[in-house]
UniProtKB/TrEMBL annotation:
Residues 1-180 form the Protein kinase domain. One of its GO terms (molecular function) is protein serine/threonine kinase activity. Pfam families: Pkinase (PF00069). Keywords: ATP-binding, Kinase, Nucleotide-binding, Serine/threonine-protein kinase, Transferase. ATP binds at K28. PROSITE patterns: PROTEIN_KINASE_ATP, PROTEIN_KINASE_DOM, PROTEIN_KINASE_ST. GO terms for biological process: regulation of RNA splicing. This is Protein kinase domain-containing protein. GO terms for cellular component: nucleus. SMART domains: S_TKc. It comes from Caenorhabditis latens.
Amino acid sequence: EVQKILGEGVFGLVYEVVNKKRERLAAKRASENFVQSIGRQIVSAMCHLDVIGVFHLDLKPENIYFVDDGKFELTPLSSGHLSIVLQNTRIQIGDFGCSKFHPEDGGEPVPKIVQTQNYRSPEVFIDVWSFGAVMSEMYTGELLFYGSEDEHSAANQFNMMQDIVGQYMNREMWKKAKRL
């Protein structure tokens, strides 16, 4: 459900689509065409950020805004919820609070732990990994990697990534990782 208008964005009105508790609509999966359309726009935005030398560092669904130039159709579901089908929808990437400029040659590297845990890559390859996690979530309606609040959460998340992706670190990879 669209909860409220957040305000005027660069491209028009911006709507809040998902609340902070990550409650989802009854119809969880987005259509393949919709995911592709949104994915192309996110990649375009990421390319623009790369050209101007910016790492977003916190790409996740809550920071992808739908702007008011598309059409939508509300369809009642048997659960009593409404399904929203968006057409010709444009997105805007927001919340640049964690963003950093690319380091100059010899400059300070990007901080290691910056992203929201569910979208953080094992080597913090930043926005490309997060993009894949967002696209997976849009298509399946489920988080690709669930985080936790415990003291071993980074190690647990890394193990979960290995289980899901199906690639385990061999001895040579561990040796290289220890040198970092």
